[in-house]
Amino acid sequence: MVKIGSAPFRFALILTALLTLALAGCQESGPAPTVAPGPDLAGTSVPGVATRAPAGTPINRDNSLVIGLRDEPDTLNYYYSNKAAADWVIRLINRGLFSFNDHNDLVPELADKIPSLGDGSIAPDGKTITVTLRSGVKWHDGQPVTAADVAFTWAVVTNPANVVATRYGYDQIEAVDTPDDTTAVLRFKRPFAPWPTLFPVLLPRHLLATLTTLDKADYNRAPVGFGPFKFASWQPGVITLDRNPDYWRGAPQLDHVYVRFLSDRAAVLAEVAAERVDVGVDFTETSLGDIAGLEPKAHLIAVPDALIEHYLFNLDEDRGPAFFQEEAVRKAINLAIDRQTILQRFLSGRGQMARTFWDNSFYENTLIKPYPFEPDTARRLLSEAGWKVSKDGIREKNGVRLSFTHQTISGSLLRENVQRLIQQNLSDVGIEMTIENSPADRLFSGYAEGGPLASGSYEMAGYSDGATTGDPDVSHYFRCSQVPTDEAPDGANWYRLCDAELDRLLDEQAQTVDREARKKIYDQIEQIMYDRAYMVLLYHRLDLYAVNARVKNFRPPTILQAWWWNAQEWGVK
Q: Are the beta carbons of 156 and 203 closer than 8 angstroms?
């Protein structure tokens, strides 16, 4: 899920399946055999799956909630979509092995605990992970969810007959053993650190095992899950969900949830204002004032996103400014920027300064604080590094002016306002930043097309990015091997950063399956990146929600846009 104006979906097809987590399973009682990838499936129909209902069913708002989205899902089969809207609706219907709570903690969902080395559920070599499932969980049609559904889901995703969005991670599994209904043993080819993000949603074996492919299955538009709400119908412009009285966490308070699809964010906001939509989601910072203006009949909820607005130094020794190789210059730039004023002036004081790429997550280094606004310290660092103030106020050293160009996405009022403030901040300490913005399609175009970021033909640039998948591994942004070149033009390291110590730690974390041990490695990674000032972290983007005053218990978490996490608790006055 990438916000409008953020970095494009580089690696999204690889990481979409890692967004947040859910799991389920079902078959006859008794032990199930190991399932190999690509089973021999046969059949053409899906028994027991409801067909799409005809148009015309009215929305009854009594003890019901209406959610407004600006986009309509392309499918309700998780493994076939990259759309945020599809993910959000699916999570109301289905859940999985693990999930996240409102504190961004990984918590068990269908699993009854999180595997660890300490209790033996993770093997010492990191290649075998045993997941124990809750007993008594049922699919919406009343059939039990079992470990056989875990194995079946893996087989479906790895089957080449199914054109799924990604097989990343699943292709690292050699086998899924199911010694009994409540035990799934994941056997990996090699240690795979992001294992908690696999099986975000399970597929019901008892309904789908007869199909040769799921590419055009009726299930994709009328799914059966085991989440808090049951699929009822998908009409043009609205999906209707009914209360699941058997949800294992407890029956939802609401009788129905209606998800309406509107043309754009303005239309969603207009429907919230007219009190025909109870909860509008997926607004950007430009809507802060408009949503706040709906008080008291609707409230603004603003929470930090995983996406971080940040500036990149071009750290390529040959293509970037030579002075960006100086740690003192990079630190001085960070210390010269007034982040607090950015939050107060442009984000209504609701934003959060960014400290690391992993803020608010299990993996954050809580000892790191945002760079303070200390222009005097910035001036001292520059002077000690030999950068002297010239007659026009811009510093020079050895005939080189401390001057560079900065690019971001043109047409973004927020970004351009922030840019001008930072331009003045830097000027105050003797650094010249010239603004040369570009349209998004130009800035983010590929290496072969000479895109500034991909080709390294920029000096400093800015956009939003972050660890948005629920797993911390964004090492493809920082590894030496990921710097784009003629031989490897698809590399994602647009910072053009190459640090042997970072590479070693990034390799180590990718093989560390125990979360506590992995966090200690990330503490080191984050400290190195902070101490060496490898980027300019500014603020977290905001997730904004417009919520009617009658709505109770709508508490979206930060970071992952998992506003559906406690849907069973939602209510209306």
A: yes
Same domain, 476 and 568: no
Inform me whether the pLDDT recorded for 449 exceeds 60. Answer: yes
pLDDT tens for 280-311 read: 999 999 999 999 999 999 999 999 999 999 99
SS (H, E, C) 307-359: EEEEEEECCCCCCCCHHHHCHHHHHHHHHHCCHHHHHHHHCCCCCCECCCCCC
Please name the helix (run of DSSP H) or strand (run of DSSP E) that holds residue 179, with its range, or none. Answer: strand 173-180
94-136: pLDDT as tens digits? 999 998 888 878 899 999 999 999 999 999 999 999 999 999 9
DSSP 111: B
Per-residue pLDDT tens over the stretch 480-504: 999 999 999 999 999 999 999 999 9
Distance CA 414, CA 346 (A): 7
- Give me 401's structure tokens: 């002016």
**3-class DSSP assignment, residue 280:** strand
Residues 244 and 323 in one domain: no
Which two three-digit tokens encode residue 494? 């647009």
Residue pair 402/395 in contact (Cβ under 8 Å)? The answer is yes
Number of neighbours of residue 37 by Cβ within 10 angstroms: 18
Asked if 208 and 217 count as a contact pair (C-beta separation under 8 A), the reply is yes
CATH code assigned at 136: 3.40.190.10
Place of tokens 């899924």: 176
Q: Tell me: do 335 and 473 sit in the same domain.
A: yes
Phi-psi region of 362 (alpha: psi -120 to 50; beta: other; left: phi over 0): alpha
Claim to verify: residue 240 and residue 266 sit in the same structural domain:
yes
Cβ atoms 496, 319 nearer than 8 A? yes
For the chain, the domain total comes to 2
420 within some domain: yes
Range of the domain at 497: 305-541
Does residue 526 share a domain with residue 440? Answer: yes
Q: Convert the pLDDT of each residue in 454-479 to its tens digit.
A: 999 999 999 999 988 788 999 999 99
Mean per-residue pLDDT over the chain, rounded:
89
Phi, psi of 127 (to 5 degrees): -100, -10
d(CA 44, CA 143) in angstroms, rounded, equals: 21
Tokens 């003629």 sit at which residue? 486
Q: Which residues of 516-547 are buried (b: 16+ CB within 10 A; e: fewer)?
A: eebbebbbbbbeebbeebbbbbbbbbbbbbbb
**Predicted pLDDT of residue 58:** 62
